[in-house]
């Protein structure tokens, strides 16, 4: 297997690309059961049985790997502190390391944290990996799933094509290596860390919120956006991650896109009125495939090594006139998105697996180079968990 890294190239050299999920499991699984379930889930996902190679011309591919490096560990350390430690340690993508998992026992609950590099897939991918993990834990057989990444129809407008041609023509074509990634991680994380704020909304409280939203025709994501920005004075640039699985497949791989809207909270209007305005702006983007897939089509036309340079510009270990200007344009330098929101809604995986049950699920997206306030939402077993992930330093 040789699968070209195309739409997801921007994630290859980004120094903050860990998707975090913590699942609280009831049923008392043993250490051996947990480790065996993890290995079994890895075996049935094609992308986790690959590694990444960068060719001399700068192109990059997923290729078959007979010795995957994803790992599972038992720990008694606080999982959030473990996350802060692990995010500073580069994933060895060239050896096939895409997921690090850590389990911690607390009374009758086993908390399992899955840290996945974005090159292993998107938020839905990790959710479906957890489904595989829980199913194997319960003794079920899972089918092998080939790698799947985004598939779009080219629909870029002429102005965007001309802009891309300008930047690509001005780029010197320098090829970067995994050693350059090492230097970027070492420099970037020397004086930085991240902060994760967690809010759990129980079912009764969430039902009241959703009833209020339905009464005014507001979707929860728009309501949440209005809640987040209501104390902001200036116009906010808000990015939204969107699912791009048109056929509903459950394979691992990056199959997400994104859209953005700008909104200045109108304090002369109600929260719901602001939410409705945000919702209308979102609908314009989401209901038009050319707009919904714009970021995918744009990124796929950037020279691959130029995208690497943009990420290294953000890390502070490389500088070039062309890559710096593109980094500014894309929000990797100076002005980033004010908020980046991902709502996985109700997790579309079972809660019960034999004697095991998911009690709670937490999801946190990475503090990507072009964002600063990362808000992630998922509902599972009647509990809605909202995280706010930010970078310090």
Tags for this model:
single chain, 393 residues, alpha+beta, six-stranded mixed beta sheet, 12 helices, 34% helix, globular
Query: What is the arithmetic mean of pLDDT?
Result: 96
Shape: globular
Structural class: alpha+beta
Biggest sheet character:
6 strands, mixed
Number of helices: 12
> Over all CA atoms, what is the radius of gyration?
21 Å
Helix content: 25-40%
Task: State the total count of DSSP E strands.
Answer: 15
SSE diagram, text form:
Layout: E1 2-4, E2 18-26, H1 31-43, E3 50-54, E4 60-64, E5 71-74, H2 79-86, E6 99-106, E7 109-117, H3 123-137, H4 158-170, H5 178-188, E8 193-201, H6 203-216, H7 220-229, E9 236-243, E10 256-263, H8 271-286, H9 289-292, H10 294-301, H11 304-315, H12 321-330, E11 339-346, E12 352-353, E13 356-364, E14 373-380, E15 383-392
Parallel strand pairs: 5-6, 9-11, 11-14
Antiparallel strand pairs: 1-4, 2-7, 2-13, 3-4, 6-7, 8-15, 9-10, 12-13, 14-15
In brief:
This protein has twelve helices and 15 strands. With 393 residues, the chain is α+β, with helices and mostly antiparallel strands.
Folded structure, characterized:
Helix 11 packs across helix 12 (321-330). A hairpin with a 5-residue loop joins strand 3 and strand 4. The model has no long low-confidence stretch (mean pLDDT 96). It contains 12 helices and 15 strands. The chain has helices at 31-43, 79-86, 123-137, 158-170, 178-188, 203-216, 220-229, 271-286, 289-292, 294-301, 304-315, 321-330, and strands at residues 2-4, 18-26, 50-54, 60-64, 71-74, 99-106, 109-117, 193-201, 236-243, 256-263, 339-346, 352-353, 356-364, 373-380, 383-392. The strands form 3 sheets. Strands 5-6-7-2-13-12 form a 6-stranded mixed β-sheet, sandwiched between helices. The chain has a 6-stranded mixed β-sheet with strand order 8-15-14-11-9-10. It is an alpha+beta fold.
């Amino acid at each position: 297997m040789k699968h070209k890294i195309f739409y997801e190239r921007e994630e290859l050299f980004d120094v903050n690309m860990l998707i975090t999920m913590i699942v609280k499991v009831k049923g008392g699984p043993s250490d051996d059961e947990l480790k065996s379930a993890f290995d079994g889930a890895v075996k049935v996902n094609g992308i986790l049985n690959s590694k990444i190679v960068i060719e001399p011309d700068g192109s990059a591919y997923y290729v078959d790997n007979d010795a995957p490096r994803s790992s599972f560990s038992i720990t008694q350390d606080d999982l959030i502190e473990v996350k802060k430690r692990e995010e500073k340690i580069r994933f060895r993508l060239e050896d096939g390391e895409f997921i690090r998992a850590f389990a911690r026992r607390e009374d009758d609950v086993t908390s399992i944290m899955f840290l996945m590099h974005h090159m292993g897939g998107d938020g839905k991918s990790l959710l479906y990996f957890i489904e595989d993990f829980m199913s194997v834990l319960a003794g079920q057989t899972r089918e092998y799933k080939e790698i799947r990444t985004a598939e779009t129809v080219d629909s870029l407008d002429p102005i965007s094509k001309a802009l891309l041609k300008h930047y690509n023509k001005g780029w010197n074509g320098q090829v970067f290596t995994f050693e350059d990634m090492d230097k970027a991680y070492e420099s970037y994380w020397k004086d930085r860390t991240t902060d994760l704020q967690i809010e759990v909304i129980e079912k009764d409280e969430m039902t009241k919120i959703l009833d209020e939203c339905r009464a005014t025709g507001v979707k929860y994501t728009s309501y949440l956006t209005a809640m987040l920005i209501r104390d902001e004075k200036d116009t906010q640039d808000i990015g939204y991650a969107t699912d791009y699985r048109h056929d509903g497949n459950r394979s691992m791989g990056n199959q997400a896109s994104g859209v953005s809207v700008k909104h200045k909270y109108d304090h002369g209007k109600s929260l719901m009125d602001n939410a409705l305005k945000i919702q209308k702006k979102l609908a314009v983007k989401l209901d038009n495939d050319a707009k919904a897939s714009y970021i995918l089509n744009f990124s796929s036309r950037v020279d691959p090594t130029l995208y690497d340079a943009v990420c290294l510009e953000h890390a502070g270990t490389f500088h070039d006139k062309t890559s710096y200007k593109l980094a500014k344009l894309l929000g990797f330098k100076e002005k980033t998105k004010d908020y980046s929101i991902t709502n996985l809604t109700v997790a579309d995986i079972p809660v019960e697996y034999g004697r095991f049950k998911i009690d709670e699920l937490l999801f946190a997206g990475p503090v990507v180079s072009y964002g600063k306030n990362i808000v992630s939402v998922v509902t599972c077993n009647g509990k809605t968990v909202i995280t706010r992930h930010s970078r310090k330093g």
